[in-house]
Design goal:
It contains 14 helices and 13 strands. The protein is of the alpha/beta class. It has two domains: 236 residues, Aspartate Aminotransferase, domain 2 (3-Layer(aba) Sandwich); 123 residues, Aspartate Aminotransferase, domain 1 (Alpha-Beta Complex), CATH 3.90.1150.10. The strands form three sheets. The protein has a seven-stranded mixed beta sheet, with helices on both faces. Strands 7-6-11 form a three-stranded antiparallel beta sheet, with no helix packed on it. Strands 10-12-13 form a three-stranded antiparallel beta sheet, with no helix packed on it. α4 packs parallel to α5 and α10 packs parallel to α14. The protein starts with 6 loop residues before the first helix and ends with a helix.
Length: 368
């Protein structure tokens, strides 16, 4: 079986370190707050070359808190790509704001710049570009649009740890950005965890207050807040994994190169784009194919795990249909029926990637 993800294999050479930090946390009874959180926030912001980092409970909380910190006009519209995980839209709606879905680019599957321009109205207050699959959005163009229309920009970086656009890491372009450290991410905890990044002291302070029951210290509740903290135990694990992230990223990029070498002649497949000005970190390796269902069954029969990100665009998700109304979404809907995610993680070796490629080429040689 070639697994889509293998978290046990990923940590094989750092397992002792992880167990040591867990044991130390238990021995010190350092469960809430603690030194690990401070160290991680400092390390992560330095790696991104950002001024402020706030650890929170998960990536969805990061989005909700970040949006709330911007004081956007109630019932105003926030532009969200229709091809992303539901958290991006949920966070908008739970802030009493309206989601307006934006179509995607046919080549990158990221938010469409042309459709952003079409969807902006006088009631638009912000844009959430999602750096999906590990590929960065064209942030210079998005920032130009935002500046012209006086819109806030919230970067969703849940799938793009250390991805770069024009040699600058994502998460440092917009007003505020959000990261998830869900276990399956390129940088994943052993449970839920997230972070908010910003270069604004004002936004950082507001986020910190919201996440800490409305105050910056105990028994100080200046605003109505909530409880969303990065667990000290998870922070300790993230500190260990963060040291490996550059190495793991190189492995993912190498694996993507093998796919490209052995699949690029197959006319039934559209491979991921990777422009020279962008660094793709391949959280997912997403290809567009013909006869998707048959291909998935064939690969499963041959012990190759795959996935689809995402089988439904957000405007078709039952929970969002009634809330968001009808949107003009064409490209995303077409692509949702054709895309498939292949195994890409650092747990894979060159031989395994070649086996996957050989099977895919064999499938199309026999069906076309």
């Amino acid at each position: 079986m070639i697994k889509f993800a293998d978290l046990n294999l990923q940590i094989r050479d750092i397992k002792k370190e992880i167990l040591n930090t867990i044991s130390k946390t238990i021995d010190n009874s350092a469960f809430v707050g603690g030194e690990n959180v401070k160290i991680f926030e400092n390390n992560f912001k330095k790696d991104l070359n950002a001024k402020y980092c706030l650890g929170v409970a998960n990536g969805t909380d990061a989005l909700e808190i970040a949006i709330e910190s911007l004081n956007l006009k109630k019932n105003s519209e926030v532009l969200v790509p229709v091809n992303t995980w539901i958290s991006t839209a949920e966070a908008v709606i739970r802030n009493n704001l309206k989601v307006k879905f934006v179509d995607i680019d046919d080549n990158t599957y990221l938010i469409s710049l042309d459709d952003i321009r079409k969807k902006i109205t006088k009631n638009t207050s912000a844009i959430i570009p999602v750096h999906l699959y590990g590929y960065p959005c064209k942030m210079d163009e998005i920032l130009k649009i935002a500046k012209k229309h006086k819109l806030k920009v919230i970067e969703d970086c849940a799938q793009a740890h250390f991805a770069e656009y024009k040699s600058k890491k994502v998460g440092t372009f917009g007003d505020v950005s959000c990261f998830s450290f869900f276990p399956g991410k390129n940088l994943g905890a052993m449970g839920d965890a997230g972070a908010i990044i910003t270069n604004s002291k004002k936004i950082h302070t507001k986020c910190k207050m919201i996440a800490n029951h409305g105050g910056l210290k105990k028994n100080s509740h200046i605003i109505i807040g909530r409880n969303s903290r990065l667990d000290n135990l998870q922070a300790g694990i993230l500190n260990i994994k963060l040291k490996k992230l550059n190495f793991w990223t190189k492995q993912r990029i190498k694996n993507a190169g093998i796919y490209e070498k052995f699949l690029n002649q197959n006319k039934n497949i559209v491979l991921p784009v990777h422009e020279s000005k962008s660094k793709h970190v391949y959280h997912l390796y997403v290809i567009k194919v013909k006869q998707r269902s048959k291909l998935i069954r064939f690969l499963n029969k041959n012990n190759i795990q795959t996935s689809i990100h995402y089988p439904k665009i957000l405007s078709e998700v039952p929970a969002l249909k009634k809330i968001t109304g009808k949107n003009s979404i064409i490209t995303a809907k077409q692509n949702s029926k054709k895309i498939i995610s292949l195994p890409i993680g650092e747990h894979l070796n060159e031989t395994q990637i070649k086996i996957i490629c050989k099977l895919i080429n064999k499938f199309y040689n026999h069906t076309t």
